[in-house]
Design brief:
Layout lengths: L9 E8 L3 H10 L4 E5 L3 E5 L5 E6 L13 E8 L3 H14 L4 E4 L3 E7 L5 E7 L7 E2 L2 E2 L8 H5 L16 E8 L4 H10 L3 E6 L3 E5 L7 E4 L15 E8 L3 H13 L5 E3 L2 E5 L5 E5 L1
Parallel strand pairs: 1-4, 5-8, 11-14, 15-18
Antiparallel strand pairs: 1-15, 2-3, 3-4, 5-11, 6-7, 7-8, 9-10, 12-13, 13-14, 16-17, 17-18
InterPro entries: Glyas_Bleomycin-R_OHBP_Dase, Glyas_Fos-R_dOase_dom, Glyoxalase_1_CS, VOC_core
Pfam family, one: Glyoxalase
Protein name: Catechol 2,3-dioxygenase
């Protein structure tokens, strides 16, 4: 549908911090169904297709458990290709005895679960965009009960769970932030996103290309929430994929106009939102 390819700007990769890499790898392979693409003693890149990575895990030195009431990761979201993939994942989780939440967001159907460190994961499928309801520039989204009876009808007979399907991608990311005014300026004026939904004055959903959201931000951990410690469990960074080098230059200029710097670190272009969530800009 083009929401995660050129000319759209989208989240391509998320890097999270964990307490115990071995324990986390077991979870992400056996429960989430991803494979290891690359691994070192303290980090690993995970893949669904054996070629590209959209999720990395790293174990910091002197790692601290996840800290509550801070900014950072609310959840990252893995987008599956088909409704039957989500149905098969429900069956898989049930067979493994894994507890999970669920929701119908009108634009999508979603499951929610946590990794061993408390990092939240959304696994979802999109409804066809023709079914989304737009009121001007805002798309209608809600939190309704998921129709499991209807979903499970799409389980393909004889199809066994063999892991995340090859077409799985990073669909979006949702962040805890300390406030919304400067955050909106950063993502809209700086990075070029559009606000596509305002949720009760406490959350914004942002996208490019009329997607329901590539990025969500909320103040549910409290206005003024502090950033977590550098070595605590949570998000290390996420990567924004821009269409081309010209878009990178324009984005850097836009960020500088609102007083935000972009620095090169080991060949990577890095910036930070007002809550100090770390973002890499790439093509």
């Amino acid at each position: 549908m083009g929401f995660h390819s050129k000319p759209t700007t989208f989240v391509g990769h998320v890097n999270i911090k964990v307490e115990n890499l071995k324990r986390s790898l077991q979870f992400y392979q056996e429960i989430i169904g991803l494979d290891i693409l690359e691994q070192t003693s303290h980090a690993a890149k995970l893949t669904a297709d054996g070629k590209t990575s959209f999720l990395s895990l790293e174990q910091p030195e002197d790692v601290l458990p996840r800290q509550g009431r801070t900014t950072g990761l609310y959840h990252f979201a893995l987008l599956l290709p088909k409704r039957s993939d989500l149905a098969n994942f429900v069956v898989h989780l049930s067979e493994k005895g894994v507890r999970f939440g669920s929701s119908d967001h009108l634009v999508s159907e979603a499951l929610y679960l946590h990794d061993p460190d408390g990092n939240e994961i959304e696994v979802y499928i999109d409804r066809d965009p023709s079914e989304w309801t737009w009121n001007g520039e805002e798309v209608a989204m809600t939190v309704d009960p998921l129709d499991f009876k209807g979903l499970l009808k799409s389980v393909e007979p004889g199809m066994l769970w063999t892991g995340m399907p090859e077409g799985t991608i990073m669909g979006h990311i949702h962040l805890h932030v300390s406030e919304l005014i400067k955050t909106e300026e950063f993502y809209v004026k700086g990075l070029g996103f559009d606000v596509v939904n305002r949720f009760g004055g406490q959350a914004l959903f942002l996208s490019t290309g009329k997607y329901h959201h590539h990025i969500g931000v909320n103040t549910w951990n409290g206005v003024g929430a502090p950033k977590p410690a550098e070595n605590s469990v949570g998000m290390e960074s996420f990567t924004l994929n821009l269409p081309n080098e010209e878009a990178i230059k324009e984005t850097i200029n836009s960020l500088q106009k609102i007083g935000v710097s972009v620095k090169e670190e080991e060949g990577r272009l890095i910036t930070y939102d007002p809550s100090e969530n770390r973002i890499e800009l790439t093509v």
